[in-house]
Amino acid sequence: MNRYCMKNWMLALLSMIALQAMADTARDSIPPKNNKLSIDLQFMGRGEMRYGGITVDEDVEETEEGSSEVPKSNFLLSRTRLAINYQRDWLEACVTPQHSGVWGQAGKGAFNLYETWVKLTSRQGLFAQVGRVALSYDDGRIIGSDDWAMASQSHDVLRVGYEGHGHKAHAIFAYNQNSSAMTGSSYYVNGAQPYKTMQTVWYHYDLPKFPLGASLLFMNIGMQGEDESPEAIGKKDKGVTRFQHLLGGFVSFNPDCWQASAAYYHQFGHNEEDMKIDAWMASAKVTFKPKSNYSFTVGYDYLSGDKYFAVPSKGSLGMVHHDVLRGFSTVYGAHHQFYGAMDFFYVSTYLNGFTPGLQNVYVGGQYSPLRGLTINGSYHYLAIATNLPDMKRTLGHEIELQASYSLSRDVCLSVGGSWMKGSETMKKLKRSSHNNILRWSWISLNVTPRIFSTKW
User: Fold this and answer.
1) pLDDT tens, 310-338?
2) Average pLDDT of the chain to the nearest whole number
3) How far is 246 from 260, CA to CA, in rounded Å?
4) Could you tell me which residues are beta bridge partners of residue 367?
């Protein structure tokens, strides 16, 4: 190759490099597509058929033999959500309108905003979120969204925290009012949330290269009652806020084919009627999964309870007075998934709000015979936690079966049923049906397509 050809070849190569560099520079000057917008739809419908259960006086019909019998109950529930999510660099926002109700319901059900919040996140892991948020921590026992319920749970809060390097630390603050009145309005009743104020601190740590995680949770909940002191006479706002506290922890350990978790929580402080609280709960659960398509589970829950009805210091004729409440409250947890699917406990109350506590011993299993199909079964032995006069502790035995099949990635069909043999203690405390044979079956359709997604 002569000098002339070599020179031309080198010039051509340099020109190509220069053109590539110019292209790279031009491409780098194009702003990246940092804006993301997505719209997700959820429709969940569920039909239920109940025979027996918790009754009120007007539901009970006297048969010719003089026994009480609860008629069968059939109904259809539905929920529709439209989740609109926007994200750009350090900014994220979400708006989720929701409609829920019973088919044919007077008033056409309930329409509200399930979530509406904005969130700012730094590269160092710090974040701040404000608005109406569906909160869920650990296994959801104390704070959970309770997705089974059509309306579910969300909270109006400010949440700040840090997440990074195995550490998660969240602080949550809430303050609720009934209206924006210019004067007064301190007495908070019948609001969107059951509490007046709430402050929560949650810390979680996952050990590096070891399947162990642990959490600590502290809640300070301000519940408001009516101030009946002589100083409150004539006041426009008679509300007084009294604080109850919850402190505890959750541990999970997941080596290989085992999954184990345990929790303990203690409640103290005062309720809205200024009665002292001293209650606790503990739980443990172990799952063994020898193969990917089946597993076995065993667990135990204990929630402390009272021996007598709650009677405040002002008293009530004929009632036993006691100064300390021992009945544990599961506050804002996803109760349906823990204490039996028929929702007799901590979703509905005992007679007149009495809380004798609960013991829940359960065993179960899960099996997937083919792709998309999952079958679950479990047995629960249920009993009260306290000794009551002339009552045995056993509440009943509950058997549950459920099958779910994914028709596609965003369509799931589920069916389930529960059978419970209640005891005389169950009948007295919960006013269950006369024969104590309680049955419940349901079928559910859950459709969750992403209907729109774009970047710019």
Assistant:
1) 555 454 544 566 678 899 999 999 888 89
2) 85
3) 23
4) 294, 375
For 395, other C-beta atoms within 10 Å of its C-beta total 29
Task: Report the alpha-carbon distance of residue 421 to residue 434 in Å, rounded.
Answer: 11
pLDDT tens for 340-371 read 888 888 887 776 667 899 999 999 999 999 99
Q: Which residue reads 């969300």 in tokens?
A: 154
Contact 245, 267 (CB under 8 A): yes
Q: List 432's β-bridge partners, or say none.
A: none
Q: Compute and round to an integer the Cα radius of gyration of the chain.
A: 28
Domain spans of the chain, in order of start: 43-178+191-229+238-455
Amino acid identity for residue 165 in this structure: H
> In whole angstroms, what is the distance from residue 439 CA to residue 398 CA?
10
Q: For 411-448, b where at least 16 C-beta lie within 10 A, e where not — what string?
A: ebebebbbbbebbebbbebbbbbeeeebbbebebebbe
Contacts 24+ apart (CB under 8 A), 318-327: 323/275, 323/276, 324/275, 324/276, 324/277, 324/278, 325/271, 325/275, 325/276, 325/277, 325/278, 325/279, 325/355, 326/278, 326/279, 326/357, 326/386, 327/279, 327/303, 327/355, 327/356, 327/357
The domain defined by 43-178+191-229+238-455 folds into: Porin (2.40.160)
Q: What residues form DSSP beta bridges with 230?
A: none
